[in-house]
Fold this sequence. Notes:
The structure is a single chain. This protein is of the alpha+beta class. Helices cover 26% and strands 24% of the residues. The protein has a domain at 4-78. It has a three-stranded antiparallel β-sheet with strand order 1-3-2, with helices on one face. β2 (45-58) and β3 form a beta hairpin.
Amino acid sequence: xxxxxxxxxxxxxxxxxxxxxxxxxxxxxxxxxxxxxxxxxxxxxxxxxxxxxxxxxxxxxxxxxxxxxxxxxxxxxxxxxxxxxxxxxxxxxxxxxxxxxxxxxxxxxxxxxxxxxxxxxxxxxxxxxxxxxxxxxxxxxxxxxxxxxxxxx
Length: 153
């Protein structure tokens, strides 16, 4: 599948003077002809013409939409991907499969030992109390300290 590169150029807005060309239409046609011949000599093929909107500034804060006429040309890419030949890599080799006896020997069994729970060793002040009702012991101690300080005042 051929791949193309594209070139977009503004369409001529004024005609070109030439010998024997007198009317405005003929001068405009001459300008188009010169543009197309110039680009075709570089290998560009005329594809189509488009009228596209262009938003431009008008004054300090305003903007206006101008319509621009452009001509689109294309040519085949010089560095096409179809010219590239990929390098074939050698097939991967399989590693030898270990038997179940070799696996048992090479992978010793490690038993996890539960860590003993020492109450009060680490207190992160977060308690899981979904089944308990009432307030937690930490909150009870905090409330008792606050009540004691208020009664002293």
